[in-house]
Amino acid sequence: MNYCSQCAAPVALRIPEGDDRPRHQCQTCGQVHYQNPRIITGALLTTGDQVLLCRRAIAPRQGYWTLPAGFMENGEGADAGALRESWEEARAQGTLDGLYTAFSLPHINQLYLFFRGTLDPVAYAAGPESEAVALYAADALPWDALAFRAVEKTLRYWLEDRRAGAFPTRHETLEADPRFR
Ligand SMILES: [Zn+2]
How far is the CA of 116 from the centre of ligand 1 (A)? Predict the structure, then answer.
């Protein structure tokens, strides 16, 4: 950040009074421009033993498979955002059962949230950000072609939890993983 969005004067990186870390602060009007993690919300929609995946048509990770997910918008709930992304990327609708996995990614300042739910009677198609959309059986998931570690972890938990018959909500903090560059 170089200029203040309030008054257009230059900003400087400094520790504001009473704070404990450097912030972008306007040198003219004093406005502090906080930068905080971005939230990505998505859905694990299943039907029987199959899960809905999208092959990404855009960077990053073009050509790799993902659960439908994207940046949460202002003015919406995370669950509504997961359903919106499912529609935008996979033209799919579903009924959510609740929050399933949450992953903090401090190295890229993101928080991933995945909700688990049931895909509405099968209708889906690739949206503009997807090259393809498909239902994958639990025993045939594309492990070598997944887009993100948070997606891989969520699918692994889903396999384990299906066997156990219970789907607890989990949170983990993930570090950078060179397999997903
Ligand atoms: Zn300013």
Answer: 43
pTM: 0.92
10 C-alpha to ligand 1 centroid (Å)? 7
Identify each DSSP E strand in the chain by its residue range.
11-14, 23-26, 32-33, 38-47, 50-56, 65-66, 69-71, 94-105, 110-119, 130-137, 170-173
- Domains (range + CATH), the chain: 1-35 (2.20.70.10), 38-180 (3.90.79.10)
17-41: per-residue pLDDT in tens? Answer: 899 999 999 999 999 999 999 999 9
Residues near ligand 1 ion, CB 5 Å cutoff? 4, 6-7, 9, 26, 28-29, 31
